[in-house]
Amino acid sequence: MAVEEARPASLIGELRYLQYEHGLEAEYLPAIRALISKDLSEPYSIYVYRYFLYQWAHLCYMALNPADNSLLGVIICKLEHHVSHSPVTQRGYIAMLAVSSAYRGNGIATALVKKAIDAMAARQADEVVLETEETNVPAMRLYERLGFLRSKKLHRYYLNGNSAYRLVLLLRPAGPENSRHAPD
């Protein structure tokens, strides 16, 4: 029997969305790595995951199956001062987003992205950026539907030779009334 047929229709509405915590590493980091490595074109080492999850766990969310707490989706993000702009901005960054292929098309990715954006906005993010392969049409549609704009094409950006688009979501308009000064 196919996974699609075995999935109860009501499951999607009952999903548990959980903010990542350090205490969950043993239980969920292997599943996070497996899910992301299956779908994203870059091979990330354990250290890349820990870099994000140790420093910005409060910006990372998981979608869990309520029946068995198995991982169905994950988003991994960060938020830092970005000093190449004048004035300095608080830049959120969506590093990784993946949803199990059997559960795509049910709003899980949208919910995860919205949770991450809300968490970054609550921490005074001025903008949220990400890169996605130009061939990943579903991802492009998702982000553009949420208000992201294409800001730059990155030719041969990924190790597989594919190009990407950098997408930006402005959370707060640039201007003197919203200016921040570089940290001393």
**Amount of beta strand:** 25-35%
How would you sum up the major sheet?
7 strands, mixed
What is the count of β-strands?
A: 7
What is the helix tally? 5
Radius of gyration: 17 Å
Terminal Cα span: 61 Å
Strand arrangement across the biggest beta sheet? 1-2-3-4-5-7-6
Word description of this protein:
The protein is α+β, with helices and mostly antiparallel strands. The protein has helices at residues 3-6, 25-39, 46-55, 108-122, 137-145, and strands at residues 16-19, 61-64, 71-82, 89-99, 127-133, 149-154, 164-170. It has a seven-stranded mixed sheet with strand order 1-2-3-4-5-7-6, with helices on both faces. It is globular and about 50 Å long. The relative contact order is 0.15.
Please name the defining characteristics of this protein:
184 residues, alpha+beta, 5 helices, globular
List the helices and strands and how they pair.
Elements: H1 3-6, E1 16-19, H2 25-39, H3 46-55, E2 61-64, E3 71-82, E4 89-99, H4 108-122, E5 127-133, H5 137-145, E6 149-154, E7 164-170
Summary of the model, kept short:
With 184 residues, the chain is an alpha+beta fold.
